[in-house]
Description:
CATH topology: Spore Coat Polysaccharide Biosynthesis Protein SpsA, Chain A
CATH architecture: Alpha-Beta Complex
Shape: globular
Number of domains: 1
CATH class: Alpha Beta
Number of helices: 7
Order of helices and strands: EEEHEHEHEHEEEEEHHEH
Radius of gyration: 17 Å
CATH superfamily: Spore Coat Polysaccharide Biosynthesis Protein SpsA, Chain A
Amino acid sequence: MNKYAIILAAGSGLRMNNPLPKQFHLINGKPVLYYSINAFIQAFGDDVNLILVLPEEYLGTGQEIIDAYFDYKRVRLTVGGRTRFHSVQNGLKLAEEDSVIFVHDGVRCLISPELILRCYEGVIQQGSAIPVVRSKDSVRIITPEGNEAVERELVCLVQTPQAFYGKIILPAFNIDYKDWFTDEASVVESFGLKVHLVEGDYENIKITTPEDFILAREIITGR
């Protein structure tokens, strides 16, 4: 069965206080995107189609990364959309229904091949695979009356890659956009389908702030 990895890297990274989007920053001499792309190649070798979704003004930068580190025939580029939902839509236009499709945040550069394969097996068994980790912290929810505690054991933190059979995710993304679509799972659920959880990885952080780069550098160096 065909495999597609849609790697989302169309964000501007405003919280980094740096004009260069974080997906292009270097960690140990290589761009953040290098690690995200390479993890899928490590997991599947030549048996994966890579789709990189970028801001239009950074398509050239993305192509330079591909040319420097990968076979240019392995990675296709497309332009990001107004929201994450629309960026995923653009990536899905390059995928086929008879496939397993991964959608991954490009700035989750600590993704491991083991987690990718765990998500793949989850799709084969259940049709979808959403990696999650349990909350280590106490959790409170804001209510109209103030706030209240939530049982920590009932809270999961959602990660990527989120993976689905093509016959599930492709039609789901034909529905109209809603403001509360924060990830692919929420879109598929809105389409009327259940999603299935798999064990995530606490190291699979999303780089959001300068402090995250420090942690990512330490983990990558340790590997």
